[in-house]
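From the pipeline queue, job 12 of 40. The input is one protein chain; the requested action is below.

Action: predict structure.
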Amino acid sequence: MTISEIPTLTHKELKHVLLVGCNLHQYFGSGNEGIRTLIKAHGFVQLDPLSPAGRYHDYFFHARLNEYSMGQFEQLAYLKDRLVFETYFHNLNAIFIEHFPFFNSYTGKEHLGRYYSRLLKNLEQVGGSKLLDEVYSHVKVHGPTKSADLAKLGKADPKYASWKSSRNSGTALELLWCLGKLAIVERDNNFRKKYDLTEQYFTKELLKKNKYSEEERQLYRLKLKLRAFPIIPIGKLTVNKEGEIRSSKKQEFSLSSLQKIKKTHNGIFPILTKDKDDLGYVISSNWKELSKDTLDSEMRVIGPLDPVIWERDLLKRLFNFEYVWEVYKKVEDRVWGYYVYPLLYKGVFIGRLEAKYVKKTKVLELFNFQKEKTIKIDEKILDAFERMIQRWKNMVGAEKLDYDSTLPNQLSHV
């Protein structure tokens, strides 16, 4: 295949495929049933503990479901249905449970990343194996355990403490989880974890470990990512001396491996495409089907870790919208604000907004609205804005709203 033979998509087509493939074109159901359907279809959702007005995953579901309440995902997915397991897949994610056998096949010392390998090595040098055995035995006897349940083990030496915990118990539980011996089985209201033995959380069928070739491993990860993000930019396409197509952007899969895959269990397999500038993309082969779906007229609050804004260059190219999550920047270095939410309406990012939910007074504060310069606030946008705010209020359980002067003054302040 030559570069000229690779299918070419316009930016308009790519944008539509991205929105529909990220399930941001229509609501995906409501409540628990909507969560079940969405997490199965999407494959995974990224997790983050920060909660100015709900955590990131709350906004992931809020943007895609007609009705959703803050914290509903944790109650259903961990405690009721056991829909997910937690692991690192690029970042920390709750992944649909059917994918556990694949990730379970890569647990053990030899599969630890650099950080956890160093942490385990440092711990073992000071007799940490005994600590791991003690913590594992406690969980085996007492069942679901959080770090505070083992406070008697004391604080960890800074040389081998996990950055997530200053306690010996927290470090040990984290390592046992990474080694596949424990699973995270609960998240409480403060997002603190409880661990249990892996074999207590998963069925025998799920606990089976399979062997994958490196190519199979690459493609499994690629297909899983495509379920959440249907367009993966791979840079400028070129041809080497051997006539093989190459891309300028480093990725964890080879382009040659794409030619060998024919079909996956869900009928969606990756293909190579490009735009008019010969920038390459790996996309789901059902992109034509995705192109047929229409966009609704609802406005959506987009969480800062949402797949639709993962690729900042692609976001700028397709939507003419720039975004950086600035929570870890110094105040004087921020352009837009601390925890800023992009606002999406009919395939257009109309601006940004910040929010804070005050539990004590049950007030949802909305402030620092920044409209994109090219956007004109008309009646349809205002109506969608008000519906979005009402859904936001319901999601966090607020009884009152508090606006600042940056929001459109035509709003009726629902």
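Job complete. The mean pLDDT is 90.
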